[in-house]
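Section 3.1: Structural characterization of target chains.
Under the original work plan, the team committed to producing a structural model for every single-chain target entering the pipeline before any wet-lab resources were allocated. The record below documents one such target. The sequence was received from the expression subgroup and is listed exactly as submitted; it comprises 228 residues.
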Amino acid sequence: MPNILICDDERDIVSALKIYLSSEGYTIFEAYTGRQALEIAREHQLHLILMDIMMPEMDGISATAKLREEYNVPIILLTAKSEDTDKVLGLNVGADDYITKPFNPIEVVARVRSQLRRYTTLGGMEQKPSKLVTGGIVMDDEAKTVTVDGDPVSLTPIEYNILHLLMSHPGRVYSSAQIYEQVWNETAFGSEGAVAVHIRHLREKLEIDPSNPRYLKVVWGLGYKMEP
């Protein structure tokens, strides 16, 4: 079963989430600071991380940035309503999703399932070509690898799935809401910012000149497309 790290300086939150997630069969690791989270990630193979933002020693944003230097596992931020700026910052440094406190543990379990499903299968339930090619971008969906002009590119699960969606339908324009609903498997409410952040990350990794992209195009007022 997947290994999940819960990192929050509020021990009651860690204990509550552990009860719900353990009942799903997941193996749970606990941390109460960002530094502890990094240590556990280095010692154990993790499949998902729940990360609080405001913590002592090292906050969740800094810990997420450090984790992204080495790992592509899904990271879900646990945030307070007053931390809207931090939510965007967290997505900017590599978080895949966020849940606002106070939260319903059942919602957390559902988000965890969704992220793990994408991380472990990356859309593999559908029969699609194993390799997708757009110009110099090659996606091998069996090996779960992406190269640009022969050079490997490291993508997070969310970035991979957005790219897979767009490369599977070159030239088709997807709105932010459509991308969110197909990649996150959730109804889109105010999702434009999250999608835009991940698109920007993809451009930075795939494009020679991200400000003048060759592949990932924006169609103003409509959405995004992969230039065929």
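The chain has two domains: 3-121, 131-226.
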